[in-house]
Amino acid sequence: MTAGHYTVLGGGGFIGSHLLRYLRQNDHQCFSPLRGDDSLFNSSLGHVIYCVGLTADFRSRPLDTVEAHVCLLRRLLEQAEFESLTYLSSTRVYAGATATDESSTLHVNPNQPGDLYNLSKLMGESLCLHGGRANTRVARLSNIVGLRPDPDIFIDQLLEEGRKTGRILLRTALSSRKDYLYIDDAVSALALIAASKAQGIINVASGEAVDNQQIVRILESDMGFIVDVAANAPAWDFTAIDINRLKDEFAIQPRLFSDYFPEFLKLYRRNKGFL
Fold it and tell me: What is the CA radius of gyration of the chain?
């Protein structure tokens, strides 16, 4: 990938900060404005990667969620000068769908408070794809594994509970499964997609459905945690994400969970200061 000019919006967040680090390490020129910095409407932004968003706290901040996922994007499409724009969405939008390829019909219900996240992301996707600007695309990101300052996703919460007590109470069944992607694979894929001529939606995921049983085995063997499962723990089955487009158009084959998760746990132990 040749050196280029990138603007990372949301550079202070988990994905954005890792993406900035990756781009700079690969000698790309990067601009990451702070929230509320209107200078981004007065200069050429190059390849924009839109990482602005809310995740764990979207239920308590619905207005901020829509502002982050839709309203700033609208201003960019109307006013900003850029070479391309890649909007980061989420594979969460496949919840309840019968297939996970990029053309799948999706299901949302505004009566469900948890669907606010998906509804706002889908509005952002639609605006990006049909807002009248050329060279815009959507990257639907999977559940990302990586070091975070706050334990705001499932695996991080398990690790935090185990670190504090040596035990984990699993509140979902061992058969429950999701798609997980390592942060290093995510940012390298996003940088490649952002510099491409791709249009439409691209799933950025592992293509592998990892069940809780596999996670538990590694946490028991590598971390020494004792894991119990809550009585009548519900099972959720989030089928593997279709990544045929990612593999065929970009020649990307993300690493398997079993290959990177032990490596991540070593980083986690070092970061948290326990061996």
Answer: 19
Q: Is 90 helix (H, G, I), strand (E, B) or coil?
A: strand
Clarify whether residues 112 and 229 are in a common domain.
no
Q: Is 36 inside a domain boundary?
A: yes
Evaluate if pTM is beyond 0.85. yes
Span of 1-5, 9-13, 52-56, 265-269 with lowest mean pLDDT: 1-5
The answer on 167 and 187 residing in a single domain is: no
Give CA separation, 96 vs 36, 57, 237, 270, in Å. Answer: 36, 22, 10, 38
* Shared domain check, 97 and 45: yes
Would you tell me how many other CB atoms lie within 10 Å of the CB of residue 258?
12
| CA pair distance 49, 204, nearest whole angstrom | 14
| Residues 150-182: tens digit of each pLDDT | 877 899 999 999 999 999 999 999 999 999 999
Pairing of strands 136-141, 84-90: parallel
